[in-house]
Amino acid sequence: MGDPETRFIALYNDNYRRVLAYALTKAEPHAAEDLASEAFLIAWRRLDDVPAQALPWLLGVVRNLLHKQRDGDHRRSALTERIAALTAAESTTWDVAEHVIERESALAAVATLPEQDLEVLTLVTWHGLTPKEAAKVLGCSATAFFVRLHRARRRLAKALDAAPPPPHSARTFSPVPKATR
Predict the structure, then answer these.
(1) Model-level pTM?
(2) Distance between CA 134 and CA 118 in Å, rounded?
C-alpha cells in the first residue's frame, strides 16, 4: 500500500479528529491530546499490525492506554493510603536491619529451590497469573499445576524453616532508642 510514511500520514489525516474526540469523552483535554498522540505513536511503531479499518483499532489503543493509566493511578493511591495508615509508632520502630536479615534468609531459601518450583511460584506470585492461566503457560492441566504449586510451596516452607536464624546482634540493632520503641 505504498511506503510506510505515506500510509501513516493517510492514517493520521483520516482518523486523528475521531481518535481525539473519543479521548476527549474519556479524559481532560490535555490528557486526551496526549492519549491521541500516544495512540498514533503506537500505530507508527506497529504500522504493519494496523488493519485497513484502522479506527476501531486506534480507539482500542486509546482505551487500553486509559486502563493502564487508571491502573497506575489506583496503585499509586493504594500505596499512598498504606503509607498514610502507618502510625507514627509503627514508622519509628520499624527496624531496617531486621528486614534486611529476613530478606537475606528468604533469598537463601529461594536459592535452594529447583528451577521448576521457582517457575511455578513466580507465575502466580510475581506475574499474578491464576493457577488456570499458569497451567496454560506450562502446558499442563490446572489440576497438575495445583499439585506442582502445592509441592513448590511446601518445599519453600521447608527451606524457610531450615534457613539459619539471624544473628542475635542483628535482631537487637535499632537506630531508634529503646525508650521510643
Answers:
(1) 0.45
(2) 13
